[in-house]
Amino acid sequence: MSEQLITRMDELETRLAFQDDTIQALNDVVSRQQLELEKLQRALELLARRQADLAASMPGDAEDDQPPPHY
């Protein structure tokens, strides 16, 4: 093989190695973000349930909170 071809192959192998590392790093970030997203979704659902329970336990109904018609 010619020296130029060997040099070119070495450069391509180096680029491939860096790309593999970059892809793995990006995959790790996406995986962590997915876990965080799922955690936040569960927290939001819990807060929504708590808010609904709190609203249901409040005295009076929603019509009592409306301003009089003359406003």
UniProtKB/TrEMBL annotation:
Gene3D superfamilies for this protein: 1.20.5.300
Pfam family, one: SlyX
Recorded coiled-coil stretches: 9-57
Keyword Signal found: no
Keywords: Coiled coil
Family of the protein in this entry: Belongs to the SlyX family.
Identification of the protein by name: Protein SlyX homolog
Lineage summary: Bacteria, Pseudomonadati, Pseudomonadota, Gammaproteobacteria, Pseudomonadales
Annotated gene: slyX
